Amino acid sequence: MTTGRLEAFSDGVLAIIITVMVLELKVPPEHHTHLHDLWHYAGVGLLTYVLSFVYIGIYWNNHHHMFQIVDYVDGSVLWANLHLLFWLSLYPFTTAWLDESNVARTPTVVYGVNLLGAAVAYYVLQLRMMRLPATGPRLRDVVGTDLKGKLSPVIYVAGILLAFVEPWLGLAPFVVVALIWLVPDRRVERYLAEHRDIAS
After folding, report:
1. What pLDDT sits at residue 199?
2. Rounded Cα gap, residues 62 and 95, in angstroms
3. Residues spanned by the domain of 22
């Protein structure tokens, strides 16, 4: 089957996730109109929202690029994609808990587990797509050694462990992973430029 419905459904779910997250942000009460009021009432929420928004954007970007290479999917890919969406759909909950707790230990650990679960789910989806008979080899060529993909879960685990020592310190590795993935990855563009018959 073609990838159209899977991509459209995934885009819709990710848009809803971002919308739900932004609705969790607190507005300062009436007459609290200064910047320090914004920080007092919504500062942590804004920071955690930005971090989670960046993560959703990274997954959307990589998901979009991956499906530029693959022409069709099977049932296993559909389920693997739903598995990824499950972990991503937990972001509003874990982000809100992180905010409400003012970055306490357990919510930070749970947030890290959420990030780790999404990373593993994306890796599983990628593996399933690499096993597709016709287009799987293309994706394997594009992904290559995937150093960032292999390194990210290790950094997430480090963040989870650090959160047991100091929750704010535990957030640092999560930010590092986001920054690593914000660096533009040109592998797909290069591959499509070299194989224009796929892009057309």
Report:
1. 47
2. 21
3. 4-199
